[in-house]
Design brief:
Length: 185
């Protein structure tokens, strides 16, 4: 066992503030687009700003968008979320379409939980006193000591007729009813 998780923040995976129960609240609070006006690596983000930024801002009125031109620096997206997380993403030499996709990813996620040690994989506001459900929850206890295969625990022990036999009988009934229709009875 290693102690690499000792310095990582711990977190639960859950929808903040029961998001989606009543109405959806976008978790992205603000996004800062840092870019250079002349550097070649910033071309994709400049294209995004010229073509799609106004539409993005109109569609996401709850998100504050800042533009920060910087000389001779690489382009960066910095997203800040309602839970206080900040996600920093280098978009050096990314195309306009890639930046559009990354903006959508940043808009739809709830912060950076990839760097967090997860304490539980499930979370509920009302935990069960009976424990979690498993596929073996309602199984017969005799199955624990039985020698398998046992016809007593077989899946087809309740059926008096096999599926093949049932299909054969249905086909015979259908053939008889078609014969009666042809003869006019």
């Amino acid at each position: 066992m290693s102690n690499k998780n000792m310095f990582m923040k711990s977190a639960f995976v859950r929808a903040p503030l029961q998001n989606g129960v009543g109405r959806y609240v976008c978790q992205l609070q603000r996004i800062v687009l840092k870019f250079c006006k002349s550097h070649g690596g910033s071309r994709g983000i400049r294209d995004f700003i010229e073509q799609d930024l106004v539409d993005f801002a109109k569609q996401n009125a709850s998100v504050v968008v800042y533009l920060k031109p910087r000389r001779h620096r690489g382009p960066v997206l910095v997203a800040e979320y309602l839970n206080g997380d900040r996600v920093w993403m280098n978009v050096q030499n990314k195309t306009h379409s890639e930046i559009t996709k990354w903006m959508e990813v940043l808009r739809t996620q709830q912060g950076d939980i990839s760097g967090a040690r997860l304490r539980k994989y499930q979370y509920t506001d009302y935990p069960s006193v009976q424990g979690p459900w498993t596929p073996f929850t309602f199984k017969d206890p005799e199955l624990n000591v039985a020698t398998l295969p046992d016809p007593k625990f077989g899946a087809n022990n309740r059926l008096s007729i096999s599926a093949t036999e049932k299909l054969r009988l249905m086909f015979e009934k259908q053939a008889i009813s078609e014969k009666d229709v042809k003869t006019g009875e």
